[in-house]
Amino acid sequence: MKRRKFIEASAISVVAVSSFGFIKFDGKKFVGDCETTTDILGPFYRPDSPMRNDLNIPGKKGKPIHLSGKIMNEDCVTPYPNAKVELWHCDADGVYDNSTPAYNYRGTVMTDSKGQYSFDTILPVPYDAGGGLIRPAHYHLMVTAPGYQTLVTQLYFSGDENIKNDPWASNDAAKNRVLQVTPDGNNGSIVSFNVGLSKKLGMEKASLEKLVGIYKPEGGEDGKIELFQKEGKLWIKNEVFGTAFDYLGDNTFEYPGLHDGSYRRMIFQPDGSFKLEMFRPGSDKQTQAFIKAS
């Protein structure tokens, strides 16, 4: 998600830095580049987590954290009430609850009239993601607010040595999402994060429904994938729930959160088939064609 340019001020320079970014004066009010950058959804998203802001589990280890912030409209000033905020993260052993009805360390809240949200939980830990990659500790956040693009992002923590080797946390797009953990003076800590919403091209539900179904690779049966839609996004089903793609326009969907020049896109054709394109700088583009099976 590209960050918006500042509204130019004729005689006023940068006057402050917020938790979003720089703030400038446009001649009438202070405005800024407050759009929150995206990050990868990851493979462990589960929808319909319980409506609760206390995720602590009695008897379980972990450093207590109070996470709070505001959800703001794209003007960077006006709060957005009744936005849905979903939080999920691993436990103190680096494990996600991907299947139990308890939805451990997963919860959903709605913002109040001032756009405020909060969660009481624990500080997640780094974990081995395979292939030699140790992911830094992070929270997953999804914010759904009618009139805006659903935000999928991750929050990291300053001082984590694993950030520098993580392709997502070390990316420049994540610099405002590496947060300070502040002791609260009572054996716990505080983390604050404000979200700036962004309007983005969407696709109507009826059109998305025409794309859902099971697809098979062109010329074979192995490697079938299932597409479904939820809250304006097109998803590829996985073992936990799925991975979401944003609509870019021109019959193209892209996996969000890749800010290093990489991309993963589904490009639909008039006959109902689509091409899955994947590219990473320094490598050749990979393309696979899929046709609808049902």
Describe this structure in words.
This protein is mainly β and 294 residues long. It is 2% helix and 38% strand. It contains one helix and 23 strands. The chain has one helix spanning 205-209, and strands spanning 16-17, 22-25, 30-32, 64-72, 84-88, 106-110, 116-122, 127-130, 133-135, 139-144, 151-157, 178-179, 182-183, 189-192, 195-196, 213-217, 225-230, 233-237, 242-249, 252-254, 263-268, 274-279, 286-292. The longest helix has 5 residues, at 205-209.
Write a brief structural summary.
By secondary structure, this protein is mainly beta. It is 2% helix and 38% strand.
Strand-helix topology:
Elements: E1 16-17, E2 22-25, E3 30-32, E4 64-72, E5 84-88, E6 106-110, E7 116-122, E8 127-130, E9 133-135, E10 139-144, E11 151-157, E12 178-179, E13 182-183, E14 189-192, E15 195-196, H1 205-209, E16 213-217, E17 225-230, E18 233-237, E19 242-249, E20 252-254, E21 263-268, E22 274-279, E23 286-292
Parallel strand pairs: 4-14, 4-15, 11-12
Antiparallel strand pairs: 1-2, 2-3, 4-7, 5-6, 5-10, 8-9, 10-11, 13-14, 16-17, 16-23, 17-18, 18-19, 19-20, 20-21, 21-22, 22-23
